[in-house]
Backbone:
């Protein structure tokens, strides 16, 4: 039998009949195991896997073919080229909207109590969750992007800029996943979590430059719409994929929007990552 | 021997609610210790403190000698927790669930696999091991949840109301599994609001009310604490009951109660066995035929009533 005070070499495989490794689980193992658990949940629950891209697809088609005809982009780009980059950027919100309910469910069902009773780094559990949520949202983004191309969207920039645009969306998705996880941990139950996340997603997604030019909104609303993070992110993705800020019909330069977006992502990550890890690791 | 759990003066307050009010408890190794008490008595709070999920406001808590407040991570290597709800993942198979917990206990892949296989066998779940847990019945989920707390081969198993909400058959099966574990040398601390469960499983029962311990001991000791044994005589012919009642009245310490439906007269007895012998002799002298005669200990229900002043099933408002 191993003693509990000594430090044994963790790479030595312990026979199943003996005590587990003295060190408990490491950071990497905890992250991959908890990420895998959440990913299996997604993959084996078809509505979790299929519904987000289907909903996003429906919205995209509605704006492309129903509202789009009545919306004047006021500039050089066609509505489909105006719509799709912004739409793709804001899918981080819609695809992330279900995260709080899932997290709240794990919290209330006793899963997190069990995990907290195990000898593991608690922050790694949340890192695993964020990884799995990001993976699911990247899948949603990929499907929506293909649909965007299918309904007529074309990039107007060199390939490097387009790749940078998608990389930026990955960062946006990752940062928002921590925001949504912290909402889930703060909500008492899945329903409350769902309601709270809807309350946050709807204004961020719609009162933005994603669907219509901000100039078409009333003045007081423009102040919010122009400065909220989603619009900044949309502007960055638009100027990267459409070939510059002029083509995207916005001011400043592409690098201005990209840097501002990265700053927002870092800020969201810092604030909500800290809240999430602190909340989950806290012993009441 | 080092007690497996040793708590001294634990207090914990949640806002206005005092969940623990100076709880003292010592659980010796090699046995099941049952925490018995009504809802809101502080049982779950105590288990959570032992599981290092919450920190007592004051007091001293040691798990197998390790200070749970100072070194919670070391305690986590010693315990396995099965909470009130089955916290297994429905979208994973039983085997995947167990391997998942095994890996998080710090087992490498191969050891986790072996440990999961062994637990599945112990709990008789091998046939259903590769089915998604969402297809499991409630009883099977609870059994798997118990298994998940075992893959790390904990020294101390913490079970918070392990059979609440189960049908009688599943409850019996789970009791069987818990007994097997104890036979294998795992110490168990469980909470329950069922007296029968405590009586069936535990060698050591701790009765908790309003956040502290009001009585502790073996089931027999607790029953003795509640007072005298009970003499019960069931007459064969209902017509003999008045005569039986008269005999009991002359022998027993208190006025007998008569239940006409079962033709049974009962009365408390101070020196049980002697008085039983006297009753048997008197019945024989008067040639009264009896269906059943005996001396029984008070039930734990009666113990609970005596100690708390209210029946065991009364739900506390807290």
Residues:
């Amino acid at each position: 039998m191993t003693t509990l005070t000594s430090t044994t070499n963790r790479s030595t495989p312990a026979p199943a009949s003996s005590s587990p490794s003295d060190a408990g689980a490491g950071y990497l193992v905890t992250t991959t195991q908890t990420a895998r658990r959440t990913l299996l949940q997604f993959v084996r629950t078809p509505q979790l896997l299929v519904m987000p891209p289907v909903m996003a697809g429906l919205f995209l088609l509605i704006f492309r073919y129903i509202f789009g005809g009545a919306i004047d982009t006021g500039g050089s780009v066609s509505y489909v080229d105006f719509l799709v980059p912004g739409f793709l950027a804001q899918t981080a919100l819609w695809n992330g909207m279900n995260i709080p309910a899932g997290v709240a469910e794990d919290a209330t069902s006793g899963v997190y109590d069990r995990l907290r009773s195990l000898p593991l780094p608690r922050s790694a559990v949340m890192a695993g969750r964020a990884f799995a949520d990001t993976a699911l949202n990247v899948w949603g983004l990929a499907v929506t992007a293909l649909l965007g191309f299918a309904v007529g969207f074309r990039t107007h920039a060199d390939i490097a800029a387009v790749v940078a645009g998608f990389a930026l969306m990955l960062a946006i998705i990752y940062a928002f996943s921590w925001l949504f996880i912290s909402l889930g941990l703060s909500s008492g139950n899945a329903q409350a979590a769902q309601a709270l996340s809807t309350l946050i997603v709807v204004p961020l997604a719609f009162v933005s430059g994603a669907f219509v030019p901000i100039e078409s909104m009333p003045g007081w609303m423009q102040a919010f719409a122009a400065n909220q993070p989603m619009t900044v992110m949309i502007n960055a993705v638009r100027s990267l994929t459409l070939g510059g800020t002029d083509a995207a019909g916005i001011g400043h330069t592409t690098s201005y929007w990209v840097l501002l977006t990265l700053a927002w992502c870092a800020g969201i990550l810092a604030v909500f990552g800290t809240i999430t890890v602190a909340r989950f690791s806290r012993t009441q | 021997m080092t007690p497996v759990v040793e708590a001294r003066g634990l207090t914990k307050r949640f806002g206005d609610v005092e969940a623990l009010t100076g709880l003292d408890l010592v659980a010796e190794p090699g046995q099941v210790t049952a925490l018995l008490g009504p809802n809101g008595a502080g049982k779950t709070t105590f288990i959570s403190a032992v599981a290092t999920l919450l920190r007592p406001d004051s007091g001293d808590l040691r798990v197998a000698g390790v200070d749970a407040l100072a070194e919670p991570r070391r305690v986590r290597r010693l315990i396995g927790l099965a909470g009130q709800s089955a916290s297994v993942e429905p979208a994973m198979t039983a085997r995947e669930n167990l391997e998942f917990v095994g890996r998080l206990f710090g087992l490498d892949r191969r050891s986790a696999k072996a440990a999961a296989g062994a637990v599945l066998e112990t709990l008789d779940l091998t046939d259903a091991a590769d089915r998604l847990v969402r297809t499991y019945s409630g009883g099977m989920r609870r059994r798997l949840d118990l298994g998940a707390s075992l893959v790390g081969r904990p020294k101390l198993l913490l079970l918070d109301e392990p059979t609440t909400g189960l049908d009688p058959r599943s409850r019996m099966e789970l009791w069987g599994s818990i007994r097997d574990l104890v036979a294998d040398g795992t110490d168990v601390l469980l909470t329950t609001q069922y007296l029968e469960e405590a009586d069936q499983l535990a060698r050591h029962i701790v009765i908790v009310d309003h956040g502290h311990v009001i009585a502790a001991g073996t089931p027999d000791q607790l029953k003795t604490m509640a007072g005298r044994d009970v003499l019960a005589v069931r007459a064969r012919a209902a017509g003999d009951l008045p005569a039986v009642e008269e005999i009991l009245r002359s022998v027993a310490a208190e006025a007998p109660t008569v239940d006409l439906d079962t033709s049974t007269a009962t009365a408390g007895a101070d020196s049980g066995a002697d008085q039983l012998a006297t009753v048997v002799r008197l019945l024989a002298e008067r040639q009264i035929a009896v269906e059943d005669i005996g001396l029984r200990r008070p039930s734990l229900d009666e113990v609970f009533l005596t100690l708390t002043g209210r029946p065991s099933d009364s739900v506390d408002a807290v």
